[in-house]
Amino acid sequence: MPKIDFYILQDPSPDARLRFACRLADKAVDQGLKVFMSTSAEDMGRLDDMLWTHSDRSFLPHEIATATSPSHPRVMVLIGNGAPPPSHVGLLINLADAVPTAFETTERLAEIVDADNQRKVRARERFKFYRDQGLTIESHNV
Predict the structure, then answer these.
(1) Residue 63, by phi and psi: left (phi above 0), alpha (psi -120 to 50) or beta?
(2) Domain boundaries along the sequence of the chain
(3) In what order do the strands lie in the sheet with 108-113?
(4) CA separation for the pair 89, 10 (Å, rounded)
(5) Separation CA 138–CA 136 (nearest Å)
(6) If you classify domain 3-141 with CATH, what class do you get?
């Protein structure tokens, strides 16, 4: 079962959770982990764009997940809305509203909670779900 971390963001800006997810993915890749970012279809393009531009000192090889992904072994980050492929189970960053599919196959799971009240309610539901499964959860105020 994965180690689960909830990151509670103080930044109220609309893209705070996506920016934080990019930084978290960057840090994980530096540690040698392959990352799957689970998000909604409408956020995929924005997240893809942000991964290109989030840092002027690094580049994260990434792509949007498809049935044949990843296209190259150097792709360290996949963005999608289904289950992470076996190649990218080091860190699952959940930006979606529901418990991610096949989360139990990952080493680590990061839940990012921003200031949006509706997303906070859904994050609390996911927290309760993980707790009821007997999983260890850590919370971090960022």
Answers:
(1) beta
(2) 3-141
(3) 62-64, 77-80, 35-38, 91-94, 108-113, 3-8, 137-141
(4) 28
(5) 7
(6) alpha beta
Q: Is the pTM of this model over 0.85?
A: yes
Residue 52 makes CB contacts below 8 A (sequence gap 6+) with 59
Q: Residue-wise pLDDT tens for the chain (142 aa)? A: 899 999 999 998 888 999 999 999 999 999 999 999 999 988 898 998 888 877 667 677 788 887 766 778 888 999 998 889 888 999 999 999 999 989 999 999 999 999 999 999 999 999 999 999 999 999 999 9
Single out the residue of 64, 63, 77, 65 nearest to residue 30, CA to CA: 77
